[in-house]
Amino acid sequence: VLNPFYVFQLFSVCLWLAEEYIEYSVAIVLMSLLSIALTVYDLRKQSVKVHRLVQSHNSVLVKGSQSPGHKLSLLLWRPATPAPRRRFAVAHQQLLVGDESDQLLRAITCRAGVQTVESRHLVPGDLLVLEGGRLMLPCDAILIGGVCIVNEGMLTGESIPVTKTHLPRDDRQQPWRTSCEDDYRRHVLFCGTQVIQAKGGGKKPAKAVVLRTGFNTAKGDLVRSILYPKPMSFRLYRDAIRFLMFLIGTAGIGMVYTVCVFVLSGEVAGEVVKKALDVITIAVPPALPAALTTGIIYTQRRLKKKGIFCISPQRINMCGQLNLVCFDKTGTLTEDGLDLWELVLTDGHSFQSVCSFSPGSTVPWGPACAAMVTCHSLVLLEGKMQGDPLDLKMFEATHWKIVDSKDSEGQARELAHAVVVKPGPKAGQVPTRGLAILRQFPFSSALQRMSVVVQELGGDHHTFMKGAPERVAGFCHPESVPPDFASQLQLYAGRGFRVIGLAFKTFPVGMSTASLTREEVESDLTFLGFLIMENRLKRETRPVLEELMAARIRSVMVTGDNIQTAITVAREAGLILQDSRAILVEASAPQAGRPSASISWKLLEDSRADRRRGPKDLPTASGGGSRQFHFCMSGGSYEVITQSFGHLLPKLLLNGTVFARMSPAQKASLVEEFQKMDYFVGMCGDGANDCGALKVAHAGISLSEQEASVASPFTSRTPNVECVPELIRQGRAALVTSFCMFKYMALYSIIQYLGVLLLYWQLNSFGNYQFLFQDLAITTLIGMTMSLNGASPKLVPFRPAARLISPPLLLSVVLNILFSLALEVCGFLLVQQQLWYSPGDMFSACSPRNASHAGPPALTALSLGANGTGNGTAGRGEEESHRSYENTTTWLLSTIDCLLVAMVFSKGKPFRQPTRRNYVFVLVLAVQLAVCLFLLFASMDELYARMELVCTPLAWRIGLLVMLMVTFIVSFAVEKLVIENRALWRWLKRAFGYESSSAYQKLRRAVEEDPAWPPLGKMDFSDSVALFVGCQEAYANPVFESQEECQSGLDP
Question: Which end of the chain is more exposed for a tag (fewer CB within 10 A), N or C?
Fold first, then answer.
């Protein structure tokens, strides 16, 4: 409401009411209230959404799919006194869930000596005992006993259950975060996540210690980033302020002119002030905010019909300037799930294919089969297996099944809480009744592996491991790893397959495994082989990327997957063309004995194009081939380059296409680095670990409808990348619409401004109904309908102008102002040169013998005034004070000129649909033009008296129409042949030596002049150890990233 536009509108309305200009004042008030109401409604809608997201901070209220009457229990242990020896009191709190999530009944059961504490009173250090069914956590807590299955969809965007294990017990006197061997997040229950299942050890319940509450939690950090997002500046809005300053400056000149004219004519001071202030309201269009808001609302409606939802309407115009889009791989460019391809095992000397997966095939029994049925994080919930899609595919291929351990008879007590798997009817011959998973070390992105301790029912204990092949091989006996390990891994990864390494070992009979550490469990393994999985491209991916490439919009892959797999997928998707080269950039951090960081460039020779051409055929930047090579790097190399080779980073990003093994903070940092190079960056991801990058990008598009997507400005209901070109099309159309509205509003204001100043020379002006017709019947309707043009279905290979003060737009406005000035001045002067013109007789132009022209005697006397002068104001009624030949001529010319300007400025192709397809706008223009022509040629006394017009000869009216047609033809021709002539502007740029000032364009020109770039086959060293400046600048949520990972990065 305190926006300067609305403050100015309030000033204008007060002035108009003082001058009894009531009708348009009411219209402006209604439009402003509608605009404010829509804005407040949108803000309120987002506020309610955020409130629903954070309301669990205040109490342990369970929301979700629980049926009425479902009971949950949360036990809180808190020290009764701050004594050195910790004593605990117990509070038992039961929650009864009703039909409405916000209408919950709380029943508190008190015990003897128990302190009752609500969950909103939790503080760090409290001990929680988790029992019963589903529970929404109100805080961050560290699990110190038992195992929990948690849904972290609110934070990660993925509804896949995650297994949380308790903090390892050891005697080392170190902080828990640094002493834990595994990724510490595997032991933390985060606020806002849902505990689906909690199991303790033996008869003991699961326990957790409160770490953080309120906005200090992971959920609180996410909410804070939503409430206080990074400010995003767009040149259009800065130019809009400059545009208004120009109009205000123009109005200032008019005010000085008005004061001089009316003071010299002897007008009273009050009237002089009113007339001077009127000039401001004429020169600065009060309806501009409503017109721009209307255009954004129309675009939002079109996006919603396409299944794209927007929570930040200001970014819609930014989408029209996108020239680089970063894509996540898994779930975005490729399918969510993986298809099993082949099981390749080794005998210690070579690899051999054991099983090719096809419908109806079975996996032969052996250690590899046992690893596939046990080394996973699947859980059985309500009779249905849930977990990671990779684990699901792997387990389903074995035809085994997970059974409830409590339903197994004759089972030892130590297996009571174990996950038991048994062969199904189609599993083939298996020499065991089943396997029990005793201990689990879940998969970690930092460690890139997972392992389990398994016992055969009534048999031996085993360890199975799966993960990145190079990591798994590092834990195995060297003699069990074949010599051609690296070449085979390169072969499968180069073909785009997802390769999983498998290993195992058997424990001695009678050895207890309950107290073994992870290092002991994962040592001295035997390498089994590879599990080959195929991650297929979505069918929409390649056409979309080809469309973006044809539109000269750069595409970049940012993924956490293996770099070889990412490069192959990039080739299949068309990110790296067949005649292009992929250059692997590897950087290593300083190590003991090597104090300097190193960087090297390696040409990948595994593509079909590489086999056809030799290295000497690599196109160089100087030869125009800067787009023919693509840099590929891992997250670890990116981190080292950021720290030690900062001067090379922009040059690498200029042709960087594949970024693999990227952590969430590194993704956000990469987007910010692209923005520093003056790219307009879009980010498209499925919401899992992409929230940071989605937020910092100019346009973040989430393909996930989980709660985490609330951090993204745009959310697509369709889970594929087709939404990206659609959003760019709509953004371009919205941006062009904004420019059209600015240009039209500027011309409408200047046209009216010029007409009023001309009439002020004779102490005259437009009448209230004349103003009302121009403001309401013409401009308001045009402003509401001009924005209805839909987006063009084709993305053209150039973007619309980004600035209002760009030469074509500025020249268009200036030339049309000159055309309108010439039109009105000619009409104003020529009417005074006509033979029938008489300043004292408003009816001298029409035949005195025609009674209809003379009008009633009373009206004639009233019109002429006591002194018989048509242009004076003394002795005349207020409603007749504006009638004159100059007034009629100037008003008709300016009114119809507003319609002609709307026709000229209503852009269609290449960014919007043709104007003829905007049927409402065409109909409105046709009706308005018909009414104006009727006013021009009609001679109806009552109508002319109401509109304060006077009768003129037919020849003069035809002359006015000819003047208007000539102005329209000239304006339309200039707009088409000059303003929209891209070839002409390109020639002018070359003639004047103009070059783009964008940072990436300057860098590209510099690179093209460097024949030694890229330095293939070389290794460079940093002169000194750079200070760490990494990912603290980017948004990093504690649920995604630890400080240790942020500093070290992920190894490829």
Answer: N
